[in-house]
Amino acid sequence: MKKFDWYGKIILMLGAARQGQAIARYMSEHGAEVMLSDAKPFNKLFPAFDALKDLPIHWVTGGHPVELLSDVDSVFVTGGADLQIPIIQEAVFRNIPIQNDTQVFLSAVQAPVIGITGSSGKTTTTTLTGRIAEAQKKEEQHIWVGGNIGNPLLTFVDDIKKDDIVILELSSFQLEIATISPRISAILNITPNHLDRHGTMEAYIAAKKHIIDYQNEMDIAVLNRDDKISWNLRKEIHGRLMSFGFVKPVDCDHEASIFLENGMIKRCMKGIEEDLFSANLIRLRGSHNIANVMAACAIASAAGFSPKAMREGIENFSGVDHRLQWVREFNGVNWYNDSIATAPERTMAALKSFDEPLVLLLGGRDKHLPWDELADQIHHRARCAILFGEAAPLIKTALEKAQTTDSSLAVIVCHTLQEAVAAAASQAQAGDVVLLSPGGTSYDAFKDFEERGKQFIEWVLQLK
User: Fold this and answer.
1) pLDDT of 1
2) Which domains does the chain have, with CATH numbers?
3) Which has more confidence, 102 or 388?
4) In the structure, what pLDDT confidence band is assigned to residue 253 with cuts at 50, 70 and 90?
Protein backbone atom coordinates (compact mmCIF):
# COMPACT_ATOMS: atom_id res chain seq x y z
CA MET A 1 0.00 0.00 0.00
CA LYS A 2 1.47 3.36 -1.04
CA LYS A 3 1.56 6.47 1.08
CA PHE A 4 -1.21 8.28 -0.83
CA ASP A 5 -3.59 5.42 -0.02
CA TRP A 6 -3.90 6.58 3.59
CA TYR A 7 -5.70 9.81 2.72
CA GLY A 8 -9.08 9.92 4.46
CA LYS A 9 -8.59 6.57 6.23
CA ILE A 10 -9.33 6.13 9.93
CA ILE A 11 -6.33 4.68 11.74
CA LEU A 12 -6.13 3.31 15.28
CA MET A 13 -2.63 3.16 16.76
CA LEU A 14 -2.20 1.07 19.93
CA GLY A 15 0.73 2.32 22.00
CA ALA A 16 2.36 5.75 22.18
CA ALA A 17 6.02 4.71 22.48
CA ARG A 18 8.64 5.38 19.81
CA GLN A 19 7.13 3.15 17.09
CA GLY A 20 3.60 4.34 17.86
CA GLN A 21 4.65 7.97 17.55
CA ALA A 22 6.35 7.27 14.21
CA ILE A 23 3.22 5.61 12.79
CA ALA A 24 0.88 8.30 14.16
CA ARG A 25 2.99 11.07 12.64
CA TYR A 26 3.39 9.33 9.28
CA MET A 27 -0.31 8.56 8.96
CA SER A 28 -1.44 12.01 10.05
CA GLU A 29 0.97 13.73 7.66
CA HIS A 30 -0.32 11.52 4.86
CA GLY A 31 -3.95 12.44 5.31
CA ALA A 32 -5.26 9.81 7.71
CA GLU A 33 -7.48 10.47 10.70
CA VAL A 34 -5.49 9.09 13.62
CA MET A 35 -6.60 7.79 17.00
CA LEU A 36 -3.77 6.97 19.38
CA SER A 37 -4.66 4.71 22.32
CA ASP A 38 -2.33 3.85 25.20
CA ALA A 39 -2.99 1.79 28.32
CA LYS A 40 -1.11 4.30 30.49
CA PRO A 41 -2.95 7.24 32.07
CA PHE A 42 -2.55 10.60 30.37
CA ASN A 43 -0.26 11.99 33.11
CA LYS A 44 2.29 9.29 32.22
CA LEU A 45 2.31 10.23 28.52
CA PHE A 46 3.37 13.88 28.53
CA PRO A 47 6.57 13.27 26.47
CA ALA A 48 4.59 11.42 23.77
CA PHE A 49 1.85 14.05 23.73
CA ASP A 50 4.43 16.82 23.47
CA ALA A 51 6.16 15.04 20.55
CA LEU A 52 2.88 14.91 18.59
CA LYS A 53 1.20 18.13 19.75
CA ASP A 54 1.48 19.71 16.29
CA LEU A 55 -0.77 17.01 14.79
CA PRO A 56 -4.59 16.63 14.90
CA ILE A 57 -4.49 13.29 16.78
CA HIS A 58 -7.35 12.01 18.93
CA TRP A 59 -5.94 10.57 22.16
CA VAL A 60 -7.45 7.76 24.24
CA THR A 61 -5.61 6.88 27.46
CA GLY A 62 -5.97 4.46 30.33
CA GLY A 63 -6.94 1.44 28.21
CA HIS A 64 -7.97 0.14 24.79
CA PRO A 65 -11.80 0.07 24.69
CA VAL A 66 -13.18 -2.18 21.95
CA GLU A 67 -15.58 0.61 20.97
CA LEU A 68 -12.63 2.34 19.26
CA LEU A 69 -12.89 -0.15 16.40
CA SER A 70 -16.06 1.46 15.03
CA ASP A 71 -15.38 2.71 11.47
CA VAL A 72 -11.64 1.98 11.78
CA ASP A 73 -9.89 1.02 8.50
CA SER A 74 -6.66 -0.34 10.04
CA VAL A 75 -5.25 -1.10 13.48
CA PHE A 76 -1.55 -0.52 14.04
CA VAL A 77 0.53 -2.16 16.76
CA THR A 78 4.07 -1.76 18.03
CA GLY A 79 6.60 -4.58 17.66
CA GLY A 80 6.21 -5.74 21.24
CA ALA A 81 2.41 -5.59 21.39
CA ASP A 82 0.51 -8.58 22.79
CA LEU A 83 -1.65 -9.73 19.88
CA GLN A 84 -3.94 -11.62 22.26
CA ILE A 85 -5.44 -8.57 23.97
CA PRO A 86 -9.21 -8.21 23.44
CA ILE A 87 -9.17 -5.21 21.10
CA ILE A 88 -6.75 -6.90 18.68
CA GLN A 89 -8.64 -10.18 18.80
CA GLU A 90 -11.87 -8.30 18.09
CA ALA A 91 -10.21 -6.48 15.18
CA VAL A 92 -9.16 -9.84 13.74
CA PHE A 93 -12.73 -11.12 14.16
CA ARG A 94 -14.02 -8.07 12.26
CA ASN A 95 -11.41 -8.55 9.49
CA ILE A 96 -9.80 -5.18 10.23
CA PRO A 97 -6.18 -5.27 8.97
CA ILE A 98 -3.49 -5.39 11.70
CA GLN A 99 -0.22 -3.71 10.72
CA ASN A 100 2.97 -2.27 12.18
CA ASP A 101 5.55 0.35 11.17
CA THR A 102 7.71 -2.24 9.37
CA GLN A 103 4.82 -3.25 7.12
CA VAL A 104 4.06 0.37 6.24
CA PHE A 105 7.73 1.16 5.65
CA LEU A 106 8.25 -1.80 3.31
CA SER A 107 5.17 -0.85 1.31
CA ALA A 108 6.21 2.80 0.97
CA VAL A 109 10.02 2.79 0.60
CA GLN A 110 11.43 3.21 -2.91
CA ALA A 111 14.97 1.97 -2.20
CA PRO A 112 16.03 -1.71 -2.19
CA VAL A 113 15.80 -3.26 1.26
CA ILE A 114 18.04 -5.82 2.96
CA GLY A 115 16.31 -7.55 5.88
CA ILE A 116 18.16 -9.47 8.60
CA THR A 117 16.64 -11.64 11.30
CA GLY A 118 17.83 -14.38 13.65
CA SER A 119 17.64 -15.47 17.25
CA SER A 120 21.14 -14.09 17.87
CA GLY A 121 23.72 -11.99 16.08
CA LYS A 122 21.34 -9.85 14.05
CA THR A 123 22.40 -6.48 15.48
CA THR A 124 26.10 -7.21 14.97
CA THR A 125 25.44 -8.55 11.45
CA THR A 126 23.19 -5.60 10.58
CA THR A 127 25.82 -3.14 11.81
CA LEU A 128 28.58 -4.91 9.87
CA THR A 129 26.45 -4.97 6.71
CA GLY A 130 25.84 -1.25 7.14
CA ARG A 131 29.58 -0.61 7.44
CA ILE A 132 30.25 -2.64 4.28
CA ALA A 133 27.50 -0.75 2.44
CA GLU A 134 29.05 2.56 3.55
CA ALA A 135 32.38 1.44 2.10
CA GLN A 136 30.67 0.45 -1.16
CA LYS A 137 28.27 3.35 -1.68
CA LYS A 138 28.47 5.97 -4.38
CA GLU A 139 28.94 9.58 -3.38
CA GLU A 140 25.29 10.51 -3.88
CA GLN A 141 23.93 7.41 -2.07
CA HIS A 142 22.80 7.24 1.54
CA ILE A 143 22.82 4.07 3.66
CA TRP A 144 19.90 3.74 6.06
CA VAL A 145 20.28 1.25 8.95
CA GLY A 146 17.38 0.67 11.32
CA GLY A 147 14.38 -1.49 12.07
CA ASN A 148 14.80 -3.19 15.42
CA ILE A 149 17.75 -0.88 16.20
CA GLY A 150 17.83 2.89 16.25
CA ASN A 151 14.90 5.11 15.34
CA PRO A 152 12.01 3.71 13.24
CA LEU A 153 12.92 4.35 9.60
CA LEU A 154 9.28 5.12 8.84
CA THR A 155 10.12 8.57 10.22
CA PHE A 156 12.51 9.08 7.28
CA VAL A 157 10.79 7.11 4.52
CA ASP A 158 9.93 10.21 2.46
CA ASP A 159 13.62 11.22 2.49
CA ILE A 160 14.90 7.86 1.24
CA LYS A 161 15.78 7.98 -2.47
CA LYS A 162 15.35 5.05 -4.82
CA ASP A 163 19.13 4.71 -5.26
CA ASP A 164 19.79 4.57 -1.52
CA ILE A 165 20.23 1.27 0.37
CA VAL A 166 18.15 0.25 3.39
CA ILE A 167 19.34 -2.35 5.90
CA LEU A 168 16.76 -3.50 8.43
CA GLU A 169 17.19 -5.61 11.54
CA LEU A 170 13.86 -7.42 11.98
CA SER A 171 12.63 -9.20 15.08
CA SER A 172 10.06 -11.99 15.23
CA PHE A 173 7.66 -9.44 16.74
CA GLN A 174 7.98 -7.22 13.67
CA LEU A 175 7.73 -10.13 11.26
CA GLU A 176 4.81 -12.10 12.71
CA ILE A 177 2.19 -10.00 10.91
CA ALA A 178 4.32 -9.29 7.82
CA THR A 179 2.98 -9.79 4.30
CA ILE A 180 5.95 -8.18 2.51
CA SER A 181 9.52 -9.52 2.32
CA PRO A 182 12.71 -7.56 1.57
CA ARG A 183 14.51 -8.22 -1.73
CA ILE A 184 17.47 -9.67 0.17
CA SER A 185 16.45 -11.52 3.34
CA ALA A 186 18.80 -13.24 5.78
CA ILE A 187 17.90 -15.75 8.49
CA LEU A 188 21.04 -16.07 10.59
CA ASN A 189 19.82 -18.78 12.95
CA ILE A 190 16.67 -19.90 14.79
CA THR A 191 17.00 -21.22 18.32
CA PRO A 192 14.44 -21.20 21.16
CA ASN A 193 13.58 -17.60 22.04
CA HIS A 194 10.57 -15.45 22.95
CA LEU A 195 8.43 -18.50 23.71
CA ASP A 196 6.77 -16.43 26.43
CA ARG A 197 5.38 -14.35 23.55
CA HIS A 198 4.93 -16.83 20.69
CA GLY A 199 3.86 -19.81 22.79
CA THR A 200 5.42 -22.55 20.68
CA MET A 201 8.62 -23.05 18.73
CA GLU A 202 6.53 -23.64 15.60
CA ALA A 203 4.89 -20.22 15.93
CA TYR A 204 8.28 -18.58 16.51
CA ILE A 205 9.76 -20.23 13.39
CA ALA A 206 6.70 -19.22 11.35
CA ALA A 207 7.16 -15.59 12.43
CA LYS A 208 10.84 -15.59 11.45
CA LYS A 209 10.10 -17.29 8.14
CA HIS A 210 7.88 -14.42 7.03
CA ILE A 211 11.05 -12.60 6.03
CA ILE A 212 11.36 -14.95 3.01
CA ASP A 213 7.72 -16.02 2.55
CA TYR A 214 6.81 -13.13 0.25
CA GLN A 215 9.93 -12.97 -1.89
CA ASN A 216 9.76 -13.60 -5.66
CA GLU A 217 12.01 -15.50 -8.06
CA MET A 218 14.38 -12.52 -8.46
CA ASP A 219 14.96 -12.08 -4.72
CA ILE A 220 17.73 -13.65 -2.62
CA ALA A 221 17.51 -15.57 0.65
CA VAL A 222 20.66 -15.83 2.81
CA LEU A 223 20.71 -18.90 5.07
CA ASN A 224 23.09 -20.44 7.61
CA ARG A 225 24.32 -23.92 6.67
CA ASP A 226 25.39 -24.57 10.29
CA ASP A 227 21.96 -23.86 11.77
CA LYS A 228 19.55 -26.75 11.20
CA ILE A 229 16.32 -24.75 11.19
CA SER A 230 17.66 -21.93 9.04
CA TRP A 231 19.20 -24.35 6.56
CA ASN A 232 16.03 -26.46 6.29
CA LEU A 233 14.18 -23.38 5.06
CA ARG A 234 16.15 -23.53 1.78
CA LYS A 235 13.41 -25.88 0.54
CA GLU A 236 10.88 -23.07 0.87
CA ILE A 237 12.63 -20.12 -0.76
CA HIS A 238 11.09 -18.56 -3.86
CA GLY A 239 14.20 -17.00 -5.41
CA ARG A 240 17.96 -17.49 -5.29
CA LEU A 241 20.04 -18.82 -2.39
CA MET A 242 23.22 -17.48 -0.80
CA SER A 243 24.60 -19.40 2.19
CA PHE A 244 27.32 -19.15 4.83
CA GLY A 245 28.94 -21.62 7.19
CA PHE A 246 32.25 -22.74 8.64
CA VAL A 247 32.75 -25.69 6.26
CA LYS A 248 33.11 -25.44 2.49
CA PRO A 249 29.95 -26.73 0.74
CA VAL A 250 30.26 -30.05 -1.07
CA ASP A 251 28.84 -28.57 -4.27
CA CYS A 252 30.82 -25.35 -4.23
CA ASP A 253 30.80 -25.09 -8.02
CA HIS A 254 27.04 -24.57 -8.09
CA GLU A 255 26.31 -22.99 -4.72
CA ALA A 256 26.89 -19.34 -3.86
CA SER A 257 28.48 -19.44 -0.45
CA ILE A 258 30.81 -17.98 2.17
CA PHE A 259 33.02 -20.30 4.27
CA LEU A 260 36.16 -20.49 6.41
CA GLU A 261 39.15 -22.48 5.20
CA ASN A 262 42.79 -22.42 6.36
CA GLY A 263 42.25 -19.22 8.31
CA MET A 264 40.72 -17.41 5.34
CA ILE A 265 37.17 -16.19 4.80
CA LYS A 266 36.41 -17.37 1.28
CA ARG A 267 33.63 -16.97 -1.27
CA CYS A 268 32.42 -19.23 -4.04
CA MET A 269 30.12 -17.75 -6.66
CA LYS A 270 29.34 -19.00 -10.16
CA GLY A 271 31.99 -21.68 -9.75
CA ILE A 272 34.74 -19.16 -8.92
CA GLU A 273 36.42 -19.51 -5.52
CA GLU A 274 38.30 -16.56 -4.05
CA ASP A 275 39.88 -15.39 -0.79
CA LEU A 276 38.09 -12.42 0.77
CA PHE A 277 40.34 -11.75 3.79
CA SER A 278 42.19 -13.41 6.63
CA ALA A 279 40.12 -14.31 9.70
CA ASN A 280 42.80 -12.45 11.68
CA LEU A 281 41.17 -9.24 10.43
CA ILE A 282 38.18 -9.97 12.71
CA ARG A 283 38.57 -8.24 16.08
CA LEU A 284 35.39 -9.65 17.64
CA ARG A 285 35.66 -12.45 20.21
CA GLY A 286 34.04 -15.85 19.76
CA SER A 287 33.22 -18.23 16.93
CA HIS A 288 29.66 -16.88 16.86
CA ASN A 289 31.10 -13.53 15.76
CA ILE A 290 33.05 -15.19 12.96
CA ALA A 291 29.68 -16.57 11.85
CA ASN A 292 28.25 -13.04 12.02
CA VAL A 293 31.08 -11.76 9.83
CA MET A 294 30.50 -14.55 7.31
CA ALA A 295 26.78 -13.74 7.33
CA ALA A 296 27.53 -10.08 6.59
CA CYS A 297 29.79 -11.14 3.71
CA ALA A 298 27.06 -13.41 2.33
CA ILE A 299 24.54 -10.56 2.48
CA ALA A 300 27.07 -8.18 0.94
CA SER A 301 27.73 -10.66 -1.86
CA ALA A 302 24.00 -10.98 -2.51
CA ALA A 303 23.84 -7.18 -2.77
CA GLY A 304 26.79 -7.07 -5.19
CA PHE A 305 29.23 -5.36 -2.82
CA SER A 306 32.94 -5.84 -3.49
CA PRO A 307 35.49 -7.81 -1.42
CA LYS A 308 37.32 -4.49 -0.89
CA ALA A 309 34.20 -3.01 0.75
CA MET A 310 33.86 -6.12 2.91
CA ARG A 311 37.41 -5.80 4.18
CA GLU A 312 36.99 -2.08 4.88
CA GLY A 313 33.72 -2.65 6.72
CA ILE A 314 35.08 -5.44 8.92
CA GLU A 315 38.55 -4.07 9.62
CA ASN A 316 38.81 -2.29 12.99
CA PHE A 317 35.21 -3.14 13.93
CA SER A 318 35.34 -3.87 17.65
CA GLY A 319 31.67 -4.64 18.22
CA VAL A 320 28.34 -3.11 19.15
CA ASP A 321 27.51 -1.72 22.57
CA HIS A 322 26.16 -4.30 25.06
CA ARG A 323 27.47 -7.25 23.00
CA LEU A 324 30.61 -8.65 24.65
CA GLN A 325 31.58 -5.02 25.19
CA TRP A 326 34.78 -4.52 27.19
CA VAL A 327 34.09 -2.05 30.01
CA ARG A 328 37.31 -1.73 32.02
CA GLU A 329 40.22 -3.50 33.70
CA PHE A 330 40.14 -3.14 37.50
CA ASN A 331 42.59 -4.79 39.88
CA GLY A 332 43.68 -7.21 37.16
CA VAL A 333 40.08 -8.19 36.33
CA ASN A 334 38.47 -7.46 32.94
CA TRP A 335 34.76 -6.59 32.99
CA TYR A 336 32.51 -7.26 29.97
CA ASN A 337 28.96 -6.13 29.22
CA ASP A 338 26.85 -8.62 27.24
CA SER A 339 23.45 -7.30 28.29
CA ILE A 340 22.04 -8.19 24.85
CA ALA A 341 22.17 -11.87 25.88
CA THR A 342 18.49 -12.22 26.76
CA ALA A 343 18.25 -15.99 26.18
CA PRO A 344 20.30 -18.92 27.58
CA GLU A 345 21.50 -19.76 24.05
CA ARG A 346 23.19 -16.37 23.79
CA THR A 347 24.87 -16.74 27.16
CA MET A 348 26.26 -20.09 26.02
CA ALA A 349 27.79 -18.39 22.98
CA ALA A 350 29.34 -15.75 25.24
CA LEU A 351 30.88 -18.40 27.52
CA LYS A 352 32.66 -19.92 24.53
CA SER A 353 34.34 -16.58 23.79
CA PHE A 354 36.60 -16.66 26.88
CA ASP A 355 39.43 -18.89 28.07
CA GLU A 356 39.96 -16.96 31.32
CA PRO A 357 38.29 -17.95 34.61
CA LEU A 358 34.80 -16.47 34.64
CA VAL A 359 32.65 -14.74 37.23
CA LEU A 360 29.27 -14.81 35.49
CA LEU A 361 26.35 -12.49 36.24
CA LEU A 362 23.03 -13.85 35.00
CA GLY A 363 19.35 -13.39 35.67
CA GLY A 364 16.58 -10.93 34.85
CA ARG A 365 13.18 -12.16 33.67
CA ASP A 366 12.71 -15.69 32.33
CA LYS A 367 11.35 -16.17 28.79
CA HIS A 368 10.06 -19.71 29.36
CA LEU A 369 13.23 -21.15 27.85
CA PRO A 370 15.25 -24.14 29.15
CA TRP A 371 18.23 -23.38 31.42
CA ASP A 372 19.56 -26.95 31.72
CA GLU A 373 22.21 -26.89 28.96
CA LEU A 374 23.48 -23.48 30.05
CA ALA A 375 23.65 -24.65 33.68
CA ASP A 376 25.81 -27.60 32.61
CA GLN A 377 28.18 -25.30 30.68
CA ILE A 378 28.42 -22.88 33.60
CA HIS A 379 29.70 -25.69 35.84
CA HIS A 380 32.43 -26.39 33.29
CA ARG A 381 33.32 -22.82 32.30
CA ALA A 382 32.77 -20.52 35.31
CA ARG A 383 34.19 -20.51 38.80
CA CYS A 384 31.44 -18.28 40.21
CA ALA A 385 27.83 -17.60 39.15
CA ILE A 386 26.09 -14.55 40.60
CA LEU A 387 22.33 -14.60 40.08
CA PHE A 388 19.98 -11.61 40.19
CA GLY A 389 16.43 -10.62 39.36
CA GLU A 390 13.20 -12.58 38.94
CA ALA A 391 14.85 -15.59 37.29
CA ALA A 392 17.45 -16.11 40.02
CA PRO A 393 15.57 -18.93 41.86
CA LEU A 394 14.89 -20.73 38.56
CA ILE A 395 18.55 -20.54 37.50
CA LYS A 396 19.71 -21.62 40.96
CA THR A 397 17.53 -24.75 40.69
CA ALA A 398 18.95 -25.53 37.23
CA LEU A 399 22.51 -25.13 38.54
CA GLU A 400 21.78 -27.43 41.48
CA LYS A 401 20.41 -30.11 39.14
CA ALA A 402 23.46 -29.84 36.88
CA GLN A 403 26.01 -30.01 39.69
CA THR A 404 28.50 -32.88 39.61
CA THR A 405 30.93 -34.14 42.25
CA ASP A 406 33.89 -32.45 40.54
CA SER A 407 32.19 -29.05 40.23
CA SER A 408 33.57 -26.26 42.42
CA LEU A 409 31.21 -23.55 41.15
CA ALA A 410 30.32 -20.91 43.73
CA VAL A 411 26.73 -19.67 43.45
CA ILE A 412 25.65 -16.34 44.95
CA VAL A 413 22.07 -15.03 44.81
CA CYS A 414 21.44 -11.27 44.83
CA HIS A 415 18.25 -9.26 44.58
CA THR A 416 19.39 -6.62 42.07
CA LEU A 417 22.02 -6.24 39.36
CA GLN A 418 23.72 -3.50 41.39
CA GLU A 419 24.12 -5.93 44.28
CA ALA A 420 25.44 -8.52 41.80
CA VAL A 421 28.13 -6.08 40.59
CA ALA A 422 29.27 -5.51 44.17
CA ALA A 423 29.34 -9.27 44.81
CA ALA A 424 31.36 -9.84 41.62
CA ALA A 425 33.88 -7.20 42.67
CA SER A 426 34.42 -9.00 45.96
CA GLN A 427 34.69 -12.44 44.33
CA ALA A 428 36.85 -11.69 41.27
CA GLN A 429 40.59 -12.32 41.34
CA ALA A 430 43.36 -10.97 39.12
CA GLY A 431 43.24 -12.78 35.77
CA ASP A 432 39.47 -13.32 35.93
CA VAL A 433 36.80 -12.03 33.56
CA VAL A 434 33.58 -10.71 35.05
CA LEU A 435 30.88 -11.20 32.42
CA LEU A 436 27.35 -9.82 32.48
CA SER A 437 25.54 -12.19 30.13
CA PRO A 438 22.11 -12.49 31.76
CA GLY A 439 20.23 -15.11 29.72
CA GLY A 440 17.00 -13.32 30.68
CA THR A 441 15.25 -10.14 29.61
CA SER A 442 15.66 -6.85 31.45
CA TYR A 443 11.97 -6.11 31.95
CA ASP A 444 11.88 -7.05 35.63
CA ALA A 445 13.97 -4.00 36.49
CA PHE A 446 14.87 -1.99 33.35
CA LYS A 447 13.24 -0.52 30.25
CA ASP A 448 15.35 -2.67 27.92
CA PHE A 449 18.73 -4.42 27.62
CA GLU A 450 20.40 -1.12 26.68
CA GLU A 451 19.34 0.56 29.92
CA ARG A 452 20.51 -2.51 31.85
CA GLY A 453 23.86 -2.45 30.07
CA LYS A 454 24.36 1.27 30.65
CA GLN A 455 23.61 0.89 34.35
CA PHE A 456 26.02 -2.04 34.57
CA ILE A 457 28.77 0.04 32.95
CA GLU A 458 28.09 2.95 35.30
CA TRP A 459 28.31 0.73 38.39
CA VAL A 460 31.48 -0.98 37.15
CA LEU A 461 33.17 2.36 36.43
CA GLN A 462 32.33 3.48 39.96
CA LEU A 463 34.28 0.63 41.54
CA LYS A 464 37.18 1.85 43.66
Assistant:
1) 38
2) 8-99 (3.40.50.720), 103-314 (3.40.1190.10), 325-461 (3.90.190.20)
3) 388
4) low
Q: How far apart are CA 145 and CA 97, in angstroms?
A: 27
Q: Is the pLDDT of residue 86 over 80?
A: yes
Task: State pLDDT tens for residues 426-444.
Answer: 999 999 999 999 999 999 9
Query: Average of pLDDT values for 222-239?
Result: 96
Q: Which residue has the higher pLDDT, 367 or 252?
A: 367
Cβ burial of 341 (10 Å; 0-12, 13-18, 19+) is buried
